[in-house]
Design brief:
The complex is a heterodimer.
Chain A lengths: L9 H12 L1 H6 L4 H8 L3 H8 L4 H9 L3 H10 L2 E5 L18 E5 L2 H9 L2 E5 L6 H16 L3 E4 L5 H11 L4 E4 L13 H10 L1 E4 L9 H14 L2 E4 L7 H11 L3 E4 L10 H8 L3 E2 L3 H9 L16 H11 L5 H4 L6 H14 L2 E3 L5 E3 L13
Parallel strand pairs in A: 3-4, 3-7, 4-5, 5-6, 7-8, 8-9
Antiparallel strand pairs in A: 1-2, 2-6, 10-11
Chain B lengths: L1 E10 L2 E12 L4 E5 L4 H4 L1 H11 L8 E7 L11 H11 L5 H6 E3 L2 E2 L5 E2 L4 H10 L4 E5 L3 H4 L6 E5 L2 H8 L21 H5 L12 H13 L3 E4 L6 H5 L11 H13 L14 E2 L7 H5 L9 H4 L4 E4 L7 H6 L1 H6 L1 E6 L2 E6 L3 E6 L19 H11 L2 H4 L3 E4 L5 H4 L7 H19 L12 H7 L4 H12 L5 H17 L7 H9 L12
Helix pairs in contact in B: 2-3, 9-19, 9-22, 21-23, 22-23
Classes of the chains: A alpha/beta, B alpha/beta.
């Protein structure tokens, strides 16, 4: 079986089918991380006996008669490729997972997935209800990591996950979205466009068969894949009970690096990340910190320092925004200065140093793209 | 006997001449009014009868038929009372027919024979003038308003008795003095004399004030984004004070519209630009005009002034869609049956919205906002679409920092208005003969012709476009606004700082979203 290249064997496809068939039962069992890991590590028959209940008999029969050819055909219809753990193109990084997924269904090609996972990968995960700060940092991390040639892995969720993907795409980098449902279905649906964009160069993967509608436990299960694929997992913003902390937990138990972006100690969105930091996670301030961690200290493309040619008035304005005077009202307390401040803010924005957010609040762009320093005016 | 009196019906805001014919002949005592009259007109019978008797005339105890011609025009309201009474008295021989033919007569009667104020006096006066009649009799409280029409004899009277004397050949009484308390115009009360809100009352808010100035100077519509209680309404109320002062023809238009709508309480000319702030539950026809009898909507009441839509995202989709025609054409057509009425609607649009459903996105403490990305997205989508395309400017309004609250005002409406007037004059010269009045009206052809960018400004705009901070539409808006920024500085060329100012006040672009 180990001779195949870019495909999935019948046993593994059967395993994926079984998980989908038992999905409701798995959800009814306790979906906490520890229990779920143990469940997913069980062999097929034990799993049926443990969870099947009254349906165990019929499930066993269907298990017996599983038609791998039909399953492969269904994948092809959905435009997915598949790779199983016996396939030589299957990502090696997932090997150490005790409950590694049997099959990965791939939107994109298996070869591309292999290429992407051959590079060191970093997971950027965090809150769905992220703050503008969280989105900005995640976007910057995605951009910085992708620009250094790393693969950004995340879960396509609202908020931080998507900002990480979008940042990587903006830098022209490649990114993997690990989905809790079928890899052919963008979830959440509002991220359809992002899904389409990332498929052009990256891929979306899932252990569940095509068309599978995600369930609560399958989000936890996909988090183990995110953590497994990544050499380091960075949590950008997370409340106390965030799913991102589950990913961090998986990463830690795999012995992978865990980083977190510090936040206000008073903000609920920083409770989770600050707790991670307290427990010894690496402080992540920018993509550079992650590159130090993954590639080794100092091994990274030289970061462009702030352009020394930046006019003093613009540099002053940028410093003021960075120090928290981030609205026009705060920057130009005397109204007579407002016109001048508006001009400077717009210029910094176009140069790529600042971003204007909701309610006219400016954020400093993390890792301004390299083109940012090209003088414009 | 037959008598005939001229009066006017208000159709939309246009006066239409109506002839009131009264015929008295022998028969059982009977009084009927025909000619597509509404309830208020038919009830005139009772008022007219009582007023005639209480004015010490005899009410003819015979068969009286009053006809309002033309019969196809719907007649509404109590303004026909006086004309009907005069026609009845004329037919009874109490008033001379040649006297009646000289005047248009308009007004509502009380049972005692006194006259009450009425709506639309100015429109009626214009109609009288247009029809070549030499004089208008109407209630004294509205006489000054009617006298705004030049070359017309206006007789302000207080009772039916006075009308009779006038028709019999007495001189028209002098106009009442302009609006002192106790005059006929009183009742308009303190509201009319209250000071106009001024920018000198504002502390901080430098950005929004700049945006108001640009909006006023270029006729651009403005969207203010900010949490509840940051001062969006307060700022919008001050826009009329920096718009150029009302020219006389404009003031006449405003007075006529407001008089017809019953909003004009002073007896003279409207002194300031109207400010209308309809609630977000308003219907489409409330906003643009409509109703069984076409009535002007808020866009028309805001004609030559400011229409302020607070909580823009809460307005119904239909109401916002309906705003497109008045915004583009400067007038609204309301069609009822075979009958179309056109209302003017040239106004400055100011809208306000929360940055997100809860209002706290962009607050100092970002975690205050509990909206999900989906909710924020939905909020944005509600706002987007054709209307947002027409809002040239976006400005964020924040709570002013504490240290500026005790300070001196940064500016005053008078000084801003001076710059605005100068900028408008430059535009008027440049755009003369093009149909556009100000930069906000410029289409793409005019933009190409009149917005000449300096080379570095051109580079800047291209860079903004390249970084997808700007959509093609947004680029057009930025060019229009940059032209206005240059006009405010009296500059012929558009420099990079003008473009930057315009870019600072541009709308959010969907492409700039972080997590998209």
């Amino acid at each position: 079986m180990s001779e195949q290249r870019g495909g999935a064997c019948a046993d593994c496809l059967r395993r994926a089918w079984l998980l989908a068939a038992l999905a409701g039962h798995i959800g009814n069992a306790d979906p906490r991380r520890e229990r779920l890991g143990a469940l997913l590590a069980l062999p097929d028959m034990t799993l049926i006996d443990a969870l099947g209940g009254r349906k165990a008999g019929s499930l066993r029969a269907r298990h017996e008669q599983f038609d791998a050819a039909a399953a492969r055909e269904e994948c092809a219809r959905a435009g997915l490729a598949a790779t199983c753990r016996h396939d030589e193109l299957h990502p090696d990084a997932l090997g150490p997972l005790p409950d590694a997924p049997a099959v990965l269904h791939v939107a994109g090609t298996v070869e591309r997935l292999a290429e992407l996972t051959a590079e060191p990968a970093v997971a950027v995960v965090g809150a769905r209800r992220a703050s503008p700060y969280g989105l900005e940092v995640a976007h910057g991390l995605g951009r910085g990591l992708a620009a250094a040639g790393l693969t950004v892995v995340s879960g396509l969720a609202l908020g931080v996950d998507s900002a990480g993907h979008a940042g990587a795409l903006e830098a022209g980098g490649r990114t993997i979205a690990v989905l809790a449902g079928g890899a052919d279905v963008p979830y959440p649906p509002s991220k359809r466009r992002l899904y389409g964009r990332l498929l052009k160069t990256g891929c979306a993967i899932s252990e569940m068969p095509p068309g599978f509608a995600p369930q609560r436990w399958s989000f936890v299960a996909r988090n183990r894949i995110i953590a497994g694929l990544a050499a380091a997992t960075v949590v950008v913003e997370a409340s106390e009970r965030s799913g991102a902390l589950i990913t961090a937990g998986f990463a830690r138990s795999l012995g992978r690096e865990v980083g977190a972006v510090p936040g206000h100690v008073t903000s609920p969105l920083a409770q989770g990340t600050n707790a991670l930091l307290f427990d010894g996670a690496l402080v992540v301030r920018d993509a550079g910190d992650v590159l130090d961690l993954v590639l080794g200290p100092g091994i990274r493309p030289a970061r462009a320092p702030r352009d020394p040619a930046l006019e003093p008035r613009l540099a002053r304005m940028l410093d003021a925004v960075a120090s928290g005077r981030d609205t026009l009202g705060a920057l130009a307390s005397a109204s007579s200065e407002a016109a001048e401040a508006m001009v400077a803010l717009a210029e910094l924005e176009i140069l790529g140093y600042l971003r204007r957010g909701a309610g006219g609040r400016y954020t400093v762009v993390a890792d301004p793209p390299s083109g940012a320093t090209a003088p414009v005016a | 006997m037959l008598a005939c009196v001229s009066t006017f019906a208000i159709d939309g805001i246009e006066p239409r001449r109506v002839l009131v014919e009264a015929d008295i002949r022998s028969g059982l005592p009977h009084f009927c009014i025909v000619g597509l009259a509404d309830r208020a007109v038919r009830e005139a019978r009772e008022r007219v009868r009582a007023a005639i008797l209480n004015s010490a005339f005899a009410f003819p105890p015979r068969r009286i038929t009053v006809n309002l011609a033309p019969a196809h025009l719907r007649k509404v309201g109590p303004g026909f009372d006086l004309a009907i009474a005069a026609a009845v008295l004329g037919a009874a021989g109490d008033l001379p027919a040649d006297g009646l033919a000289r005047w248009a007569i308009f007004g509502e009667l009380s049972l005692s024979g006194e006259l009450r104020g009425c709506r639309g006096a100015l429109a009626v006066a214009e109609g009288t003038r247009r029809q070549g009649l030499n004089g208008l009799v109407l209630p004294r409280s509205r006489a000054r308003e009617a006298a705004l029409v030049e070359g017309l004899t206006v007789a302000g009277v207080e009772s039916l008795r006075e009308v009779a004397e006038l028709v019999a050949g007495a001189d028209a009484p002098a106009l009442p003095p302009p609006g002192p308390p106790g005059s006929a115009g009183a009742g308009s009360g303190a509201e009319g004399r209250m000071e106009e809100p001024d920018l000198a009352d504002v502390r901080g808010q430098g950005g929004p004030i700049e945006a108001l100035e640009v909006a006023a100077a270029g006729g651009h519509s403005l969207l203010m984004e900010g949490a509840p209680g940051t001062g969006k309404t307060m700022l919008a109320r001050r826009l009329p004070s920096i718009l150029p002062p009302l020219a006389r023809p404009e003031a006449v238009e405003v007075t006529r519209i407001h008089s017809v709508a019953g909003l004009h309480r002073d007896s003279g000319l409207a002194a300031r630009r109207p400010f209308r702030a309809p609630h977000h539950t308003i219907s489409a026809s409330g906003l643009v005009g409509g109703g069984a009898v076409p009535t002007p909507g808020e866009v028309t009441l805001a004609h030559r002034g400011v229409l302020f839509l607070d909580e823009l995202s809460e307005f119904s989709r239909r109401a916002l869609e309906a705003l497109r025609q008045p915004l583009e054409d400067g007038r609204v057509g309301v069609v009822r049956g075979q009958h179309a009425v056109v209302f003017p609607s040239r106004f400055s649009l100011v809208a306000a919205t929360n940055p997100c459903p809860c209002g706290y996105a962009g607050a100092q403490d970002a975690s205050l906002c509990r909206c999900t990305e989906t909710e924020r997205e939905r909020h944005r989508r509600r706002l987007s679409g054709p209307l947002l395309d027409r809002l040239d400017l976006l400005v964020a309004v924040q709570r002013p920092p504490a240290e500026v609250l005790g300070g001196p005002p940064a500016t005053s409406s008078a000084s801003v208005r001076e710059r605005v007037v100068a900028a408008r004059e430059r535009q008027a010269r440049r755009l003369a003969g093009t149909g556009a009045r100000c930069n906000g009206d410029m289409g793409s052809a005019l933009i190409r012709l009149h917005v000449r960018l300096a080379p570095d400004a051109e580079r800047l705009l291209a860079e903004a476009y390249r970084r997808s901070r700007l959509s093609p539409r947004g680029r057009h808006r930025a060019l229009r606004v940059a032209r206005t920024a240059a006009d405010l500085e009296g500059s012929d060329g558009v420099e990079s700082r003008h473009v930057l100012k315009a870019l600072n006040m541009r709308q959010h672009e969907p492409a700039a979203e972080l997590a998209a």
